[in-house]
Description:
This is Transcriptional regulator. By secondary structure, the chain is an alpha+beta fold.
Amino acid sequence: MTDATKKYLSAAAVCARYDGRTRMTLYRWCKDPELNFPKPVKIRGQNYWVAAELDAYDSSMEGARA
């Protein structure tokens, strides 16, 4: 997948994706090495997450619960 076809989500969109969690919770998840939450990409000084990485993370968490 090239950068042109990647879908990026803002911090607000990622918070909404995870049931309205706060931005602070999001950044705590990023800092916690045990969670292995995807790290953001900085674009023009703003943090964005690659949607495919979040999808993969969600799948791995579902697999861990099973």
